[in-house]
Amino acid sequence: MTPSIVFLCVHNAGRSQMAAGWARHLGGDAVRVASGGSDPAAVVNPGAVAAMAEAGVDIGGATPQRWTDQVVREADVVVTMGCGDTCPVFPGVAYEDWPIPDPAGLSPTGIAPIRDELRTRVLDLLNRLGVAGGRETRSTADWTSPLVLASASARRREMLETVGIPVEIDPSDADESFPEDTPADQAVVMIAARKAADVAARHPGRPVLAADTMVRVDGLLLGKPTDTDDARRMLGLLSGRWHDVLSGVVLASDGAVLDRLAVTAVRLVDITSEEIERYVSGPEPYDKAGAYGIQAVAGWFIAEIRGSPSNVMGLPLAEVRE
């Protein structure tokens, strides 16, 4: 019989969602997972979404839910995190209380230690339930030699290594221009293909991964800002609005080329002129399409994400996994 785990906290927006994400990622179909809160928030904490995306786990599509007595009664194990006396207790159900800090108000960087502790605890729980955390191992077992990454991005390298893929960096010098009338979804794949071909020529017989990311708003395509004025202009365009983040990913190996496209919709909060000035005065905007990233300071600017959070960080991991 498939064991079931329910993760509970107050708002079902941070800890319980991250724990449930880890359980589904590590346990796969060998475990049933649910989560809930006594007072559900409107959306999952964007910082938690970003922190999990860094580890290759997508919880961006989750919605906070109120727990039900039926779901809790049917669980083999109920894990509580900070819900105190409001947590439901039923005879015959095993309970564990995990003293995990609340990630509310923290940046993705601040949430990372919480994410990692949850992974350790979830993996231990799965092992005690007889569920091997083998899904993650199987997904990376074939990477016996380093993948050549045609990018100088430390973030892309970190994201790949976090999910167990060894990486060798060899940035591409390929031309990244394209005709003005080229649709964005074609442009990002085309540029990624150029990068992959450029680097693959230097590494015969090795798999080479390349990616390119752009932001689209009102038909305009935004790449990396060229200077402070450009970064200021981009953030002004995106402030308070929905826009698309598009990434083309190309894998070249032994003459074969595979490509994927990821599109994520993002809405920023209304960013004040003072916040923009503070942000553009630092180093963060200048190596990111659209002049922002969700993984650090600009995580505070994110109101909603529809789609892959890791795509917004520059490398859509689900498409890479395919």
Characterization of the model:
With 322 residues, the chain is of the alpha/beta class. The chain is built from eleven helices and eleven strands. It has helices at 15-27, 46-54, 69-73, 108-128, 134-140, 154-162, 184-200, 228-238, 273-280, 309-312, 317-321; strands at 4-9, 32-37, 77-80, 94-97, 147-149, 167-169, 208-217, 220-222, 242-253, 256-268, 302-306. The strands form two sheets. Strands 5, 6, 7, 8, 9, 10 and 11 form a seven-stranded mixed beta sheet that branches. It has a four-stranded parallel beta sheet with strand order 2-1-3-4, covered by helices on one side. A hairpin with a 2-residue loop joins strand 9 (242-253) and strand 10. Helix 2 (46-54) packs across helix 4 (108-128).
